[in-house]
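note to self — DONT lose this again. spent like an hour looking for the file last time. sequence + predicted structure for the chain T wanted, 322 res
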Amino acid sequence: MGYKLFFIESICNAPNIIETNIMECKVTNPDYTNMEKEDAVKDFLKRIEHYRLFYEQLDEEKETKYSFMKIYDAGRRVVVHKQEGHIESRIAYYLMNIHITPRSIYLTRHGESVFNQLGRIGGDSDLSYRGRQYANALAKFIAEQNITNLRVWTSCMKRTIQTASGIDAPQERWKALNEIDAGICEGLMYEEIQEQYPEEFAARDQNKYSYRYPRGESYEDVVVRLESVIMELERQENVLVVGHQAVLRCVLAYFLDKPGVELPYLKVPLHTIIKLTPQAYGCKVEFFKIPIDCVDTHRSKPVDCSIGRNPQDALVTVPSHY
C-alpha cells in the first residue's frame, strides 16, 4: 500500500515568540538539565544561529512534487502547497486553528441532578437541591478567578444550563455537548438495565468505548460528534465547559492523550472543576473539589464481563445512589 508525504515547516522570525518558546520549551530540554536558565537560553540562541547558516526552506516556486504546509510566526501566515486529499485537508485545518496564546480550559459537570440522586442514566432532569447549591458555588468560584475574556459553553440540556445560569460571562449552547444518548436505556437504573437487557449490559462492559446503545450512541460516536467542539476549543482562549460525564471524558482524553480503552473510565466527579492549561509538552491538570455533598456516579469495570454472569457480579461496581 502506497503512502504520500506531507511536509510541515514552522518558520519563526519574531523575536518575542522565539524568546517565549525558548523559555517555555527549550530550557526544559534534557540537554540543559544541569544548566542555569540564562545559560541555556544563550546556548539555544547560538544553536539557532548555527542552524540558520545551513537551513534551507521549502520553496513553493521550485517544489513541483511534494505537498507541504508552511506556518510563519506561530500562525500569523500560513502557506499550503499542493494539498491533496481529505487527510491533508484535515491536518491543514487543524494546524490553522491551534494557537500558542496562554490560556486555560475549565471543565465541570452539571450540578447533581434529580436523576443522579435516583441512580438513573441520561434524561433531562432538573438539578437537585445540592445541584443548585453547586451552581451558586461555581458562579462564585469563577468570579473569584478573574478570568479574562472567559466564554461559557453548555449543552442544550436543562441541568447544564441551570448550572451555568449564575455565571457572569457570555454563554453558548452546544447540542454537540449533550450527554451520550443511551437509547433504549435512557432513564433506567443500572439495576433495571441488568434485569431487562442483561446481554446489552454485559456487551457494554466488554467494550465500553465501541459499544453502542440500541437506538443510541457509543463513546466512539461521541468522540466524532465532539470534533467541532475540540477544534473550536483549540481556537479559543479561556473557556468554561459545563458538560456531562461521558462528554467530558472525551474532552479530557483528547487533551491528556488517553487511549480509547481508558477513556470511558476516566474519573469526572460531580461538583468538581477541572482546570486544563496546555503547555509545551502536554497539559497541566488541576482539580478543585467544591465542598457540597453529591452522589458518586463513577462505575468501574467489573471483573466478570461475561454474558452469563450472575446479577451480583454485574452490579458489583454500581455506585450508591444516595
